[in-house]
Amino acid sequence: MQHFPRLLHLNNILSLKFFTMKSVKSGFLNGVNLLIGALLAVLGFGASCERFARVEYGTPSAKFIVSGQVKSAETNLPIQNVRVIMKNDTTYTNAAGEYEVEDRAGMPITSTYSLKFRDIRDGSLKQYSDLDTAIEFKNPVFTGGDNHWYSGETEKDFDVKLKAKK
């Protein structure tokens, strides 16, 4: 009977040692899990950031092209350096006021695109008002497709006249 309290005391020490080892092991595993989770998150976000939408295998796609000329509504002269924005594409008009923008991953169906025309000059140098408009490709006819998932491309001419800024 006298050995019983000693055994109980030894049992408590072993339990405490086991509990401490269990805490260390649990803390280590939690740290490893946190590290792996952070690594996967960084890799996942890094792999998903693309400038243009990727066309996956088995996705019908087509290229929609809009081109034209930007002129002054008052003088009918071409305007250079007007920013033209359509979906993921941005371009600037050349000296003749010509531009071309495209959507390389559009769906081969009737589609409407928002077009934005911006005079990029700052402050008092800005001569023309901005224009937001839309263009519709209704029942588009495509050329150059591969007879599989890529339907080809279609193009529309769209000339614009910008009004002088008041």
Describe the protein's architecture and organization.
With 166 residues, the protein is α+β, with helices and mostly antiparallel strands. The protein folds into two domains: 1-49; 61-162, Immunoglobulin-like, CATH 2.60.40.1120. It has one helix at 3-48, and strands spanning 61-72, 82-86, 89-92, 98-106, 111-119, 131-137, 143-144, 150-157, 160-162. The strands form two sheets. Strands 1, 4, 7, 8 and 9 form a five-stranded mixed β-sheet that branches. A four-stranded antiparallel β-sheet has the order 3-2-5-6, with no helix packed on it. The longest helix has 46 residues, at 3-48. It is elongated, with a radius of gyration of 32 Å. The N and C termini lie far apart (105 Å).
The radius of gyration is 32 Å
Order of helices and strands: HEEEEEEEEE
Task: Could you tell me the CATH topology label of the largest domain.
Answer: Immunoglobulin-like
Domain tally: 2
Alpha carbon gap, first and last residue: 105 Å
List low-pLDDT spans. none
Main beta sheet strand tally, sense and closure:
5 strands, mixed
Q: What fraction strand?
A: 35-45%
CATH class of the largest domain reads Mainly Beta
User: What is the helix tally?
Assistant: 1
Mean pLDDT: 84
Computed structural class: alpha+beta
Number of strands: 9
